[in-house]
């Protein structure tokens, strides 16, 4: 009887061990893919920090506000205003959803600001370099 119990415990622990190992391998692969998608270097790190700070990726923020083009600032603002008003607590909306809409807009604004800053620094760099002859 004791032998059967020991065998069951050993078999169960082997199954759990294999499942845990497989889960770790999958998580490692997923984190590697996410790192590749973020890009390497300074820009990738900056994007990852922004994702952590706001709790949203730029893709999630675009989905929440139902926009695909970050250059269409008017549509972003229109969708934000609509979703924020619809989820007003006094109108029976959800504060949780309203805060998600707010964070999505905040994340998109940060991405637009980073993009503009990058373009500005490239422009200044081009202006400061001597003309090639």
Automatic annotation (TrEMBL):
One biological process term in Gene Ontology: protein import into mitochondrial matrix
Entries under InterPro entries matching the protein: J_dom_sf, Tim16
One GO cellular component, as annotated: TIM23 mitochondrial import inner membrane translocase complex
Keyword Mitochondrion appears in the UniProt entry: yes
Location (main, coarse): mitochondrion
Compositionally biased spans, kind Basic and acidic residues: 112-123
Protein's membrane topology: Peripheral membrane protein
Domain of life of the source: Eukaryota
Region (Disordered): 112-133
Cell location: Mitochondrion inner membrane
Record's keyword terms, sorted: Membrane, Mitochondrion, Mitochondrion inner membrane, Protein transport, Translocation, Transport
Family according to the record: Belongs to the TIM16/PAM16 family.
Protein name from the UniProt record: Mitochondrial import inner membrane translocase subunit Tim16
